[in-house]
Amino acid sequence: MSVKPLKFVKLRHAHHQETAQDYVEMIQDLLKEEGEARVTEIAKRFGVSAVTTHKIILRLQKEKLVDSKPYRALFLTPKGKKMAIQSKKRHNVVYRFLKKLGVPEKTAQIDAEGIEHHVSPKTLRIFQKFMEQG
Amino acid sequence: MSVKPLKFVKLRHAHHQETAQDYVEMIQDLLKEEGEARVTEIAKRFGVSAVTTHKIILRLQKEKLVDSKPYRALFLTPKGKKMAIQSKKRHNVVYRFLKKLGVPEKTAQIDAEGIEHHVSPKTLRIFQKFMEQG
DNA sequence: GTCTTGATTTAGCCAAGGCTAAATTGATAC
DNA sequence: GTATCAATTTAGCCTTGGCTAAATCAAGAC
């Protein structure tokens, strides 16, 4: 058997993107639902402290995904918006795919949250086709 | 819309288990394939340094999943063996499920590696049923 | 028995994502 | 205009999982 680090290397890279994707998605949801996105509300929804959220937001600002002034609400940059839209789309495909398969609502929600970041474009297309036909 | 930290909290807990599961699976594979499991070979297969692997092994020893004496090969405790067997089983179900769906070999391998840790027992049973019938 | 060599371990660094406590600020009430 | 209060930020700590360089050890060569 040959040695295959590739899949594990990819896995580590995926992990590094997960937080960013979850956060931009959340910010987009809040902008839509509440009209604005604030650190405290994000923290509450993720179940972490506001400090943790704040630090992650700082990183996302450095990565030009999030835009904001000190002590003010958060916005997405065009880059952040694009990521949010793509993430949400992928999330929905995974979630609907699981439900179509017969996974109960709540379980589908929880599992989709974990699975979505590890579904490659190829697999996603297959999930989508399955939903449309199956 | 209500606030739901639960799914994200579960996600963080899942992450904390991932490394342990990947490592006990790998150790089991090496014991079977090579007769013994050594730090260097594990590191090579995961694509990380031997030092990183060593530190993770130390943690797994503290958690009573791995057993070994300094400078010697690694073994699984009964607890570690049990985890390895369950992980491998779940991994195989996810992998075969993806292939059954039509995902190509290599993609199925990569995606399964990321997805497996986020598939709940309920969803896993549905995957399994789909394979047996579908 | 000693030497060499490759494997393992230790030391010490970094980033990410957790936390609490304390300081700062914005906005609202008065 | 000032005081208050909640939200935000800073400071400082922890763990995990990365790394390189250096020290230690086991095992085979001689």
Query: CATH superfamily of chain A, called what?
Result: Winged helix-like DNA-binding domain superfamily/Winged helix DNA-binding domain
Instruction: Assign the CATH architecture of chain A.
Output: Orthogonal Bundle
Structural class of the secondary elements of chain A?
A: mainly alpha
Sheet with the most strands, sense and barrel status of chain A: 2 strands, antiparallel
Radius of gyration of chain A: 17 Å
Mean residue pLDDT of chain A = 95
Distance between the termini of chain A: 36 Å
Q: What is the helical fraction of chain A, as a range of percent?
A: over 70%
| CATH structural class of chain A | Mainly Alpha
Oligomer: homodimer
The side-by-side strand order for the widest beta sheet of chain A comes to 1-2
The rough form of chain A would be described as: globular
SSE pattern of chain A, N- to C-terminal? HHHEEHHH
Instruction: Count all strands of chain A and give the number.
Output: 2
Strand content of chain A: under 5%
Instruction: Could you tell me the CATH topology label of chain A.
Output: Arc Repressor Mutant, subunit A
Which parts of chain A are unreliable, with pLDDT below 50 for 5 consecutive residues or more? Answer: none
Provide structural commentary.
The structure is a homodimer of 134-residue chains. Chain A has helices at 6-34, 39-46, 50-62, 78-101, 105-115, 121-132; strands spanning 66-67, 75-76. With 134 residues, the first copy, chain A, is mostly helical. Chain A has a single domain (6-132), classed as Arc Repressor Mutant, subunit A (Orthogonal Bundle). In chain A, strands 1-2 form a two-stranded antiparallel sheet. In chain A, strand 1 and strand 2 form a beta hairpin. In chain A, helix 4 crosses helix 5 (105-115) and helix 4 crosses helix 6 (121-132). The model of chain A has no long low-confidence stretch (mean pLDDT 95). Chains A and B meet through helix 1, helix 2, helix 5 and helix 6 of A and helix 1, helix 2, helix 5 and helix 6 of B. Chain A binds a DNA duplex (30 and 30 nucleotides) through helix 1 and helix 3.
